[in-house]
Amino acid sequence: MSSVSIRNLDLNFDNVEVLKQLNLDIPEGEFLVLLGASGCGKSTLLNCIAGLLDISDGQIFINGENVTWCEPSDRGIGMVFQSYALYPQMTVEGNLSFGLKNAKVPKDEIAKRVKRTAEILQMEDWLKRKPGALSGGQRQRVAIGRALVREVDVFLFDEPLSNLDAKLRADLRVEIKRLHNQLGNTMVYVTHDQVEAMTLADRIAIMRNGKIQQLGTPSEIYNEPANLYVAGFIGSPAMNFLDGNLKEGQFQFGDVTIDLTQYHYVTDARNGDAILGVRPEHILIGEAIKDHHFSTELEVELFEPMGSDTQIWTRLGEQSFRIRVDGQMKVSNGDKIRVGIDIQRCALFDKASELPI
């Protein structure tokens, strides 16, 4: 296994700064996910690690060796792209073995690696088929196998599941997680899908405008977001943001006031414009409200049945507000429901800096 270290990495396209003084350490055997919206620099960073882009400044180390100016083939990595990029005229076996033949690996070793890879990915029955006879999920599994057969220590995945339908994405997500648990290789995985990130990652690096906003475990990022952007990006449905003012522990927005004085994180907070973040799943309904100090009655504007849960759209203090409840709860448009807020699970941000209070 190999570690990956990035030091003070800059990448500029003409006068445009794409990656800015980026530092990142990925320990041996870690599954790191680079997460962010389109254009944040996550795929660009992956291509820098792979050697597909020449950086403007900084250094890249793999297993302690400076590979900043090494060719991609000399970095000891395997890469899986968004597109399958399989040779249509070759069988699955041919696609798996092609790179090894070019590297002049002995025939018996090639056969051994192809057989082992096919067993790991459970695709022994496809070896004589061509890509045109495979489903999208099967083709992507072959693409993963083509990287796996090289027996490298670092795997790079560039949004490998984005071309698949929802069920196939879920199935292959499990397979990739199982593969990492089985092999223990270092894996760097790019996605814009937070569900993939939360379920796959040992740690997540959330990126925005070429910089890492927060690096932490899925639990840390969900429960302790580093700023307003991270709080809004992680969570489905997204966190509610109430725009108001904090004064002596009282959070006010519109004609609504929420008393925060009983909670330690606002004891010494300065007064001023603030934003209270409330996740839809942390809204209290029914008996759960009685032990909490804030509750109010809201009118259901819209509801979305999702099966296991239902998402309710309403308004709190004239601001849009989403609630996530059990899917068995009966609700109709226009219903009045009493809700409470679990303040201890909320996040409070300074409006100007967008940093936590």
TrEMBL record:
Spans traversing the lipid bilayer: none
SUPFAM superfamilies (alphabetical): MOP-like, P-loop containing nucleoside triphosphate hydrolases
Record-annotated ABC transporter domain positions: 4-234
Alphabetized GO MF terms: ATP binding
UniProtKB keywords: ATP-binding, Nucleotide-binding, Transport
InterPro entries: AAA+_ATPase, ABC_transporter-like_ATP-bd, ABC_transporter-like_CS, ABC_transpr_MalK-like, ABC_transpr_MalK/UgpC-like, Mo/tungstate-bd_C_term_dom, NA-bd_OB-fold, OB_MalK-like
CDD domains tied to this protein: ABC_MalK_N
Coiled coil, from the record: none
Cited NCBIfam families: PRK11650.1
Protein name per the record: ABC transporter ATP-binding protein
